[in-house]
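This is your field. Have a critical look at both lines of this record:
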Amino acid sequence: MQKYENSLEFAKKKDCEDVLRDIRERFCIQENTIYMDGNSLGLCSKDAKEALYHVIDMWEKHGIGIWDIEDSKYFLYQKVLGEKLAQLINADGDEVTVMTNTTINIHQGISTFYKPTQDRYKILVDDLNFPTDRYAVDSQVRLKGYDPKDAVKVIKSSDGNFISEDSIIEGMTEDVALILLPSVLYRSAQLLDMERITKEAHKRGIIIGWDLCHSIGAIPHDFKNINPDFAVWCNYKYLSAGPGAIAGFYINKSHFEKEPGLAGWHGNNKDTQFKLLNEFDHEQNAHGWQTGTQPLFSMAPLEGVLNIYHEVGMEKIRAKSLDLTAYLMELVDERLVKYGYKIGNPREDHNRGGHVCLEHEEAYRICKALKDHGIVPDYREPNVIRLAPVPLYVSFEEVFRLVEILEEIAINGEYEQYSNKRTLVV
């Protein structure tokens, strides 16, 4: 039975009933633009701007004294933000910190946990994860004197779109020391069963880390139940903390006593940090994995936007996300399939992330045409138009109008006037 109606009136009715409709006003919506790229870079919020401007003002007013004001809030900013982020994944506040970027945090996690032996020296990955994860894994393997062709065990997709969880578990052989996987596949939006996979890894004595880049802020995670060893993520996608915003890092409290693979002075115990000793005095929580001085201007927008997330709650965000993406998929089925479009992501709620993967053989040129219609999509090779109706600022009416324009582009063959030559940022 059809759940949605194919009409503008229905879309407007859904927006009127939306409990999150007023939150949209907190974001900097651009006129005549429908933003569907929040899974790559989230929209700026007014809360984020205010938080950043406040820190700039504090720097202007206090200079170096900024480290001491507000009970040393900015010297301990990673603690403040870590506690806020921890609530999104149901972790303890001291298990989460913010630092550097996703790739460096992967290096930090692997260098901490990867202690290869003659019998157990392999790192298990999949072949669909975002390439930076693989680059970091290969680098860490080489640093230990191994050849990635031997020491990196790749679980291959059978169809180029999805990864079999059973295949991952079957790949957990006795020679595997560590696993790194994505929570949501960036190209196909497949959401992996993190709890099942993590438990299977731990049964075999294998360390497991997760890359949450395409799920943090879109999907509520329960790390009390999942219980991973470590996790990394960026904060500029669904969390809208700004271009290249500081990244997130989680380490399970059971590992607090471990020495960080990459040590730095901001990971030092705060009681002895300014004694400037040459011997590292590791802080026994996630902040002990810090390295250099925290970049306040990269951190402040995150504080602002997290206020919105805490006000709304992840359950409401996920509920609307599932509603918006289901609505988009049904409209695609009804109006666009006849023109060569098809859905390339899982349909089931429990197996789908926060974006829809619309496939078409002319996807790249269609994306160019969409931009000239005021639609901001995201393209991924070889044929995917990624569309993320982020629930905090995308409406049902915008989803309806998006499908109208996709249909118009196909009917009129508008994409044919565009080149297939890739730009620097596709």
In short: The mean pLDDT is 97. The first strand starts at residue 34 and ends at 35.
